[in-house]
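Supplementary Methods S3. Input chains for the assembly prediction are listed below.
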Amino acid sequence: SQKIEQNSEALNIQEGKTATLTCNYTNYSPAYLQWYRQDPGRGPVFLLLIRENEKEKRKERLKVTFDTTLKQSLFHITASQPADSATYLCALGDWGKLQFGAGTQVVVTP
Amino acid sequence: GAVVSQHPSWVICKSGTSVKIECRSLDFQATTMFWYRQFPKQSLMLMATSNEGSKATYEQGVEKDKFLINHASLTLSTLTVTSAHPEDSSFYICSAGDDVDYTFGSGTRLTVV
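Predicted structure tokens for the full assembly:
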């Protein structure tokens, strides 16, 4: 069956450092992968989409890599800020019909 | 940007009663809406796909008679949890889009007591 795995342990990081999150998947051949941010009691907010033919994508302080051979995506938050504290989800699927990982909580301390 | 509104944001109901959750696309027409459920510390799980004017398609293991979905217009889909039980307590989230871009609602916290 298709599986998406993210680190279940919270990532505690000091303000200004880079947070790196991992998303591994099995039994998928995705054309693209998405990353979302979810705050407590809120719906996910779309951050980035990376296609299979893209190795890396950036948006402001966010960077995503996609290795279809390793079946892995890395999500980086550079120069992290306390406002970046949230749970980050990776997702695979066809446009709106998505399968999500369980998410990794990031806590940025001043 | 696209805005999707969910109502109510939270609801408490008694076991055995029914609860209706609304999902509205405020500034665009949504040909397709999706309903997800999220239990604490778990990932979002897709429950069903809702297409305007046709019957919803349910994921395996989701009871269609318990979770009634109506998508009567291009801007509104409703999810009714019938005869709710405490195990139905969860966070319900919709997403709406136009086949390419999708936006999530803010979610509805359902507590069945």
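Chain A touches chain B through 18 residues (CB under 8 Å). Chain A has a mean pLDDT of 94.
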